[in-house]
Amino acid sequence: MLMNIINYAHYLLESSIDKGETVVDATCGNGHDTLFLSRVVGQSGKVLAFDIQEEAIENTKQALSESSYANVSFILDSHANMTTHLKAQNIELVGGAIFNLGYLPKGDKTIITNRESTVEAIQHLLPVLKTNGLVVLVVYHGHEGGKDEMHAVLKYAMNLSQRSYHVLQYGFINQQNNPPFIIAIQKR
Ligand code: SAM
Fold it and tell me: In terms of C-beta density within 10 A (0-12 exposed, 13-18 middle, 19 or more buried), how is residue 180 classed?
């Protein structure tokens, strides 16, 4: 069976993350991915959940309110400052990460992820990613500014050395209205 984009993104991460690891939700938004990661790493693991909007951090706290896990560290800052936060928390190895790009669903559609900070954040993450770990990007490109970011991320990912990374693109090619797709980067 073909999986939808979010299910496949989660499947990839679940297959490669171990319990107890530290992982990153680079854009926590409404908290769906943070909640998912929190369950995957379990009580002994940790999720760093980034977002630049207070509303998103609050929504994510709300989404987690019924979960029994207290393993999420909320960071109200750009993921472009990832290294500073990893160092502050003494994190030297990351088990995996997700970037769900674009704007906050049901929020301000003008506050979007962008080419510079997204690529910078990936550049910060790859050196600390575990061997065989994955950075999964869910790329939305139908909104204003989306295509610009999509081209930059694709260019960056396509030029990663195949000796060091496997890079996958997954998406449905017969859907209308700029369907999202996945770029998954696996460290070799
Ligand atoms: N993962 C979320 C979920 O499960 O509900 C959806 C994320 S939403 C598509 C994108 C989010 O990226 C928005 O909440 C937005 O505020 C956030 N964002 C935009 N630029 C950012 C940046 N530089 N650093 C961190 N978050 C950013």
Answer: buried
